[in-house]
From TrEMBL:
Pathway(s) it belongs to: Lipid metabolism; fatty acid biosynthesis
Transmembrane segments: none
Assigned keywords, A-Z: Fatty acid biosynthesis, Fatty acid metabolism, Lipid biosynthesis, Lipid metabolism, NAD, Oxidoreductase
Organism from which the protein derives: Adhaeribacter pallidiroseus
Gene expressing this chain: fabI
EC numbers: 1.3.1.9
Name under which the protein is recorded: Enoyl-[acyl-carrier-protein] reductase [NADH]
Any matching Pfam family: adh_short_C2
Length: 270
């Protein structure tokens, strides 16, 4: 059901790859709620995914951009404002990648050049996005900027490797830039710490199925789906959350507040 929560709002959505992507679901819901937006992803990801199909569905244009490149981001924000006919009201940063995870490097044997790439793609790109937006004065007052995180920023998880450090940096950047952007333009900046979600990126982490099942048994409401996360993003883009900023918002069915669940106890007692 649509409520016209984003009627007249304009934005940029990073990271839609295929119909399993959270960014894909956010784009669909934003379109339903009346928003206009530009879709973007790295050129390689665009070749691997189906973003043009989503663009057609949402009547959106696609602008390729490497989020680690300030030049690409400058072009993206300039073109987006031209296409949409004005400044932006929301931005979704749904970007994360670790060469060490992809190539199966253990945490005690990391390739440090790849580690730096992890941080650049998954965290520093968020700062670059906001710095470009600020310098171009591309955001409307009371705009909303979101990034997607995971509880591994605070807790250790096997096989999540250097992505844990990237998520911790991502959340720190949100707080620091949230303070700055709030003072400058009343723009709010938040991260959403989402349940394990069966996206292309998520399922690429070793042991993901065990993560997923454990979190589902621990959470009183069960894991939050990509569709659930999209709905939450829409509320944070809307005017209903104008004073929520610099927060890491836990969207995990209660997982983060549970010590142990009855389901896990029963399973351990078998």
């Amino acid at each position: 059901m649509a409520y016209n929560l984003l009627q007249g709002k304009k934005g940029i959505i990073f990271g839609a790859l295929n119909d399993k992507s959270i960014a894909w679901k956010v784009a669909q819901r934003a379109h339903e709620e009346g928003a206009q937006f530009v879709l973007t992803n790295a050129p390689l990801a665009m070749r691997m995914g189906e973003i043009n199909k989503l663009a057609e569905e949402c009547n959106a244009q696609v602008i390729p951009a490497d989020a680690t490149s300030v030049e690409d981001l400058q072009n993206l924000f300039t073109q987006s404002q031209e296409i949409l006919g004005g400044k932006l009201d929301f931005v979704l940063h749904s970007i994360g990648m670790s060469p060490n995870v992809r190539k199966g490097k253990t945490y005690g044997d990391l390739n440090y050049e790849w580690f730096q790439k992890t941080l650049d793609v998954s965290a520093l790109s968020f700062h670059k996005v906001m710095q470009v937006a600020e310098k171009q004065d591309a955001m409307n007052e009371w705009g909303s900027i979101l990034a997607l995180s995971y509880i591994a920023a605070q807790r250790s998880f096997p096989d999540y490797s250097d992505m844990a450090q990237a998520k911790a940096m991502l959340e720190s950047i949100a707080r620091s830039y949230g303070q700055r952007f709030g003072k400058l333009k009343k723009v709010r900046v938040n991260t959403i710490s989402q349940s394990p979600t069966k996206t292309t990126a998520g399922t690429g982490v070793g042991g993901f199925d065990a993560f997923f099942e454990y979190a589902d048994k621990m959470s009183p409401l069960g894991n939050a789906s990509a569709e659930d996360c999209a709905n939450y993003c829409i509320t944070l883009f809307s005017d209903l959350t104008r004073l929520v900023t610099m927060q890491n918002l836990l969207h995990d069915g209660g997982f983060s507040s549970v010590g142990i669940s009855e389901e896990i106890v029963n399973q351990m007692n078998k």
